[in-house]
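Translate sequence into structure tokens.
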Amino acid sequence: MAQVNESERKEIIDRLRTVQGHLSGIEKMILEGRECEDILYQLTAIRAAVDKLTVKLAEHYLLCCHLSAEDKGLTSDAAFRKALQTVLKLNH
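Result follows.
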């Protein structure tokens, strides 16, 4: 990821590791024959962690997209429209 400072990179990696930990936990739970309810709670935790990661990356993308518009020959309006289209696709 371009233009990410070390603090942001660490935060993103930490969030990814949280998701990986939950996934490993679910795999272990299934192998152990744990209750579906417990597994569903873990899936909910994964969704929340992925949502937080998505928001963080979308925020970074919007800032970088807007800041790098001139470098790519885009007007501010075109950069905004491109960023908006990308972010709106996240909900589909």
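Note: The domain at 6-89 is CATH 1.20.58.1000 (Methane Monooxygenase Hydroxylase; Chain G, domain 1).
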